[in-house]
Design goal:
The chain has about 220 residues and is mainly alpha-helical. The protein has one domain: Tetracycline Repressor, domain 2 (Orthogonal Bundle). Helices cover about 65% and strands about 0% of the residues. The protein has 9 helices and no strands. The relative contact order is 0.12.
Length: about 220
Amino acid sequence: MPRITPSAARQPAAAPQTSGQILDVAERLAQTRGFNGFSYADIATELGITKASLHYHYPTKADLGRALIDRYSTTFAAALAGIEESRAPRPMQLERYVAIYAEVLKAGRICLCGMLAAEYTTLPALMQDAIRGFFDVNERWLSRVLESGRKDGSLAFEGTPEDAARAITSALEGAMLLARPYGGAERFKSAAQRVLREFAPAAKPSNKKPVSKKLRG
């Protein structure tokens, strides 16, 4: 399945850059600094091009931000489709969903849309709509997996699958952010494992009667 991992290397180049290369650098900066933490000058310096070249591809930073979200969302959606098409048991599908986030964190980054959500009120409407769209797609996918798992008995939870899906995305995104100050993925891993355990069906009591030992006279 597609992986939401760092894009290609970031070495400066003299030749004109493609819009994809610009997005590669901007995505990394947004995931590590936040969208408000970098400028066109930062991208231009890293790629060895002029700011005018950047504006040719993305006239405004809002255009750049929307393109970032659209590309990230498309890649993420492809990863979700791959998980579903694998027809793995529903609990395993949830584990693979968590693994997407774990891979991003392992690379020293944060989920792009999770990072942007923290800056939501400062971002243009063009980007805000796309951020909501990303989480809507994730929650609909999770809802299908959860409901299917509850029907076949492999997953258990109270309430609606929609509420459970929102709880999962909120927990994972929050765990990623809180893992950053501690410089490692252990906090995320612990939180993610706890989330997964919450959906495990309760063990059925055994019908076997304990065998009593005969007393010796």
